[in-house]
């Protein structure tokens, strides 16, 4: 099994954690990245598997997959133990759907706000108008993230996870929150359960 990853790819790191939690051996190839050109030129093996030219790309035998969520689904079906979704059974379908929904929420609803904080770790923009625009966008993103963190505080369970045991939802939300913290987004001190989820994820073998 081979994973094409990137040094600044949150979504690749999601897959790495899932592979680690499932105890699956894999070869990791980091695609070239520079601050000046990003991921250009695109890695040919990544382009061959993904028309968008983005990582992660997972190759398992004759199968090449892209998109972290699709890779999660494949791993759960092909390598079901240990499970990273709630078990089937009475209420299982709804529990699994809620877990998948939380993963989607992390990737598609919460994480985009973190992009507004890139300016906080870069040198100040030389254009005052652009600096003001960046700060205004950052303030809006911070307000939105505070709402998301408050909502998260209401659903994290006593054990520190979202779906009972560690799941794909926790992996996705953990990585999203870590990015917001690295980019100087709103701190977690006012959201004890969200902070507890981060600490619980940090204590798992694949993250440690």
Nearest-angstrom radius of gyration? 18 Å
Q: Mean pLDDT across all residues, rounded?
A: 93
Query: Which architecture of the largest domain does the CATH hierarchy give at level 2?
Result: Up-down Bundle
Largest sheet: 4 strands, mixed
Task: Name the helicity range.
Answer: 40-55%
Give the low-confidence spans: none
Domain count? 2
Number of helices: 7
CATH topology of the largest domain: Glutathione S-transferase Yfyf (Class Pi), Chain A, domain 2
How many strands appear in the DSSP assignment? 4
- Biggest sheet strand line-up: 2-1-3-4
Question: Please, could you describe this protein's structure?
Answer:
The chain has helices at residues 10-21, 44-49, 68-78, 92-114, 128-153, 168-182, 192-202, and strands at 2-5, 27-30, 57-60, 63-66. It has 208 residues and is α+β, with helices and mostly antiparallel strands. The relative contact order is 0.13.
Layout of helices and strands, plus pairs?
Elements: E1 2-5, H1 10-21, E2 27-30, H2 44-49, E3 57-60, E4 63-66, H3 68-78, H4 92-114, H5 128-153, H6 168-182, H7 192-202
Q: What key phrases describe this protein's structure?
A:
single chain, 208 residues, alpha+beta, Glutaredoxin, Glutathione S-transferase Yfyf (Class Pi), Chain A, domain 2, 2 domains, 4-stranded mixed sheet, 7 helices
């Amino acid at each position: 099994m081979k994973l094409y990853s990137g040094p600044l790819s949150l979504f690749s790191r999601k897959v790495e954690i899932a592979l680690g939690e499932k105890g699956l051996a894999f070869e990791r190839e980091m695609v070239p990245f520079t601050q000046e050109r990003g991921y250009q030129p695109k890695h040919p093996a990544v382009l061959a598997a993904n028309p968008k030219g983005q990582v992660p790309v997972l190759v398992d035998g004759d199968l090449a997959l892209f998109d972290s969520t699709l890779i999660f689904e494949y791993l759960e079906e092909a390598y079901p133990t240990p499970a990273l979704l709630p078990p089937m059974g009475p209420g299982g379908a709804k529990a699994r759907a809620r877990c998948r929904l939380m993963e989607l929420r992390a990737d598609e609803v919460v994480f985009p706000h973190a992009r507004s904080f890139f300016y906080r770790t870069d040198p100040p923009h030389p254009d005052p108008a652009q600096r003001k625009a960046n700060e205004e966008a950052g303030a809006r993103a911070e307000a939105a993230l505070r709402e998301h963190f408050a909502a998260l505080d209401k659903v994290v369970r006593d054990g520190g996870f979202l779906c009972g045991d560690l799941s794909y939802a926790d992996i996705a939300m953990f990585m999203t929150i870590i990015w917001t913290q690295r980019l100087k987004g709103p701190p977690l001190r006012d959201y004890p359960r969200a902070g507890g989820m981060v600490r619980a994820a940090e204590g798992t073998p694949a993250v440690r």
